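Example 3.2
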Amino acid sequence: MDLRIGFFASHDGSNVVTVFDNIKEGKLDAQACVIISNNSDAGVFDIARDNGVAYYCLNDKNYPQEKGSLDDSILDVLSSYNVNLIVLAGYAKKISGKIIGVYKNRILNIHPSLLPKHGGRGMYGLNVHQSVLESGDKKSGSTIHLVTGEYDVGRILAQEEVDVGEDDADALSKKISFLGGEMLVRALDEIQSGLIDLNAR
């Protein structure tokens, strides 16, 4: 599959950097086409500028969600760059059913736990890691899954574990963030080569 990736990120986009670096080094056969954020101050825009990649801030303020205008604006941007795969890299907004319908089985999310544990509404950022610690789990990790209309229930494409050990929520977050970027590159490589079939059930 010829990968033309659109990234959605709300903050610093650390996983985006890992993908960009692997593309530049020739380790991943893909094209980073555009970055979309809902946050005008997102650090991921610096990554876009440093790499010569187009970027857009699209949110409810500059495109009020009336008559689907925000969704249509996002879809217009993705279409203009011929994006065929969306990667959510710390995107703090739920993807609408309209976008999911257009990109069915073509939206990946990186979730910082071993789904189905510690997923669902409100399970993002440090909330996830605090939930892991409060549960007493000895293992946590990262999951890459397809996005559906429900939080964190889409088909799992990849998972890797880490030991929780004596980590607090912040330390666990950093450990899993590093893991997620490397996992994402491997998953994208397997999608590109056909080892992962996004249409499989």
